[in-house]
Task: inverse folding
């Protein structure tokens, strides 16, 4: 990166931090090219050269917010209990929203339909990877993709509700009860392979089918040491059967 590129990146970061301060202090309506340029000590024309219009600046702010969110999430250490990790991840998500309400509304609010920053996709991929691990552990009732959609819908709905409620009126039990209900609907306790009390039925078969499907997926993309003794068409057929067992 050249000196001029580094200088431009430094100015962009400074402007972004100034805009973030305005956003968190006064809300999204206070963020304008004029107010941000004045607070950052640059000309409005310079801000347009760096970011474009106000919409592009808000997009950059949303990206910045997701970067902060992902940085927070990375501090959560994974344990051998994916269901407990899911609860901790839910609580961390809600906590981020309550600590950064203006950011959260920009990230997940309904005022930007059909559009989301690249970091939102990164957050979704991170969640999907975690749910793949949960399925591999035999703890997931339904396919990871659908589980992710349901989990995200639940936690964002709760967080947006709490963010829009005056602080003195918030009841965090709303989050706790919703968390426990959603996670209970999506997960099961792992069954030992030789558990004599296990009986047939979708409540037992589905998590094991998902676990085997996750193992096959890992083997296909080289994430495990398993050498599959099946042809690709046979693996595809087996995975189709496994998916049917989870419906």
Result:
């Amino acid at each position: 990166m050249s000196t001029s590129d580094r200088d431009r990146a430094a100015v962009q970061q400074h402007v972004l931090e100034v805009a973030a301060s305005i956003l968190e202090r006064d809300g999204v309506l206070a963020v304008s090219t004029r107010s941000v340029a004045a607070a950052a000590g640059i000309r409005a024309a310079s801000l347009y050269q760096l970011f474009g219009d106000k919409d592009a600046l808000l997009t950059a702010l949303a990206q910045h917010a997701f970067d902060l969110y992902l940085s927070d999430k990375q501090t959560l250490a994974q344990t051998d209990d994916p269901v407990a990790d899911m609860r901790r991840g839910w609580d961390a998500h809600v906590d981020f929203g309550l600590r950064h309400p203006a950011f959260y509304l920009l990230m997940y609010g309904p005022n930007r339909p059909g559009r989301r920053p690249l970091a939102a996709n990164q957050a979704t991929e991170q969640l999907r990877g975690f749910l793949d691990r949960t399925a591999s552990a035999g703890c997931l009732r339904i396919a990871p993709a659908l589980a992710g959609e349901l989990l995200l819908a639940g936690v964002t709905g709760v967080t947006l509700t709490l963010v829009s409620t005056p602080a003195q009126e918030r009841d965090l039990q709303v989050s706790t009860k919703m968390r426990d209900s959603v996670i209970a609907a999506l997960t099961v306790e792992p069954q030992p392979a030789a558990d004599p009390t296990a009986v047939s039925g979708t409540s037992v078969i589905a998590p094991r089918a998902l676990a085997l499907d996750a193992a096959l997926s890992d083997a296909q993309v080289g994430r495990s040491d398993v050498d599959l003794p099946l042809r690709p068409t046979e693996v595809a057929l087996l995975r189709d059967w496994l998916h049917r067992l989870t419906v």
Notes: The chain has a mean pLDDT of 83. The CA atoms of residues 44 and 246 lie 56 Å apart.
